[in-house]
Design brief:
single chain, 128 residues, mainly alpha, two-stranded antiparallel ribbon, DNA-binding, GntR family transcriptional regulator, transcription, DNA-binding transcription factor activity
Length: 128
């Protein structure tokens, strides 16, 4: 199955982080199942128009987080669910990141929560 990852140069988020986060979401959602082989570093870098070193960093970070395992003969493959963080841990990490960003903008908790509720209400089922 081809990996569906898009990099938005205008997003303000580092390309490696965009790729990393999208792969984590694909794994968490079950679109990339345990044992699925990810594309070789050079191929994914070429497909996304990024440097090989950028994708190598993504794969290193994914491996450090328990999302994938790399072996010479098999390449980089998605690990079993027991070997990686659960949805609750990911949700708490995302919430902490959002809370820091909201605090950096100088908004209070009520305003930040209202922004989440507003964003949630316009999401379509299956939106990532």
């Amino acid at each position: 199955m081809p990996v569906k990852v898009v990099v938005d140069a205008d997003s303000g988020v580092a390309p490696w982080r965009q790729v990393h986060d999208q792969l984590v979401r694909l794994i968490t959602a079950g679109a990339l199942t345990p044992g699925t082989r990810l594309p070789p570093i050079r191929q994914l870098a070429r497909d996304l128009g990024l440097a090989s070193g950028t994708i190598a960093r993504v794969y290193r970070e994914l491996e450090a987080g328990g999302w994938v395992h790399t072996a010479r003969a098999k390449g980089t493959v998605v690990t079993e669910a027991a070997d990686r963080p659960g949805k609750t841990a990911l949700l708490h990490a995302a919430a902490a990141d959002y809370a820091r960003a909201a605090r950096d903008l100088g908004v209070d908790a009520e305003t930040a929560l209202a922004a989440v509720a507003s964003a949630w209400s316009v999401l379509e089922p299956g939106d990532a």
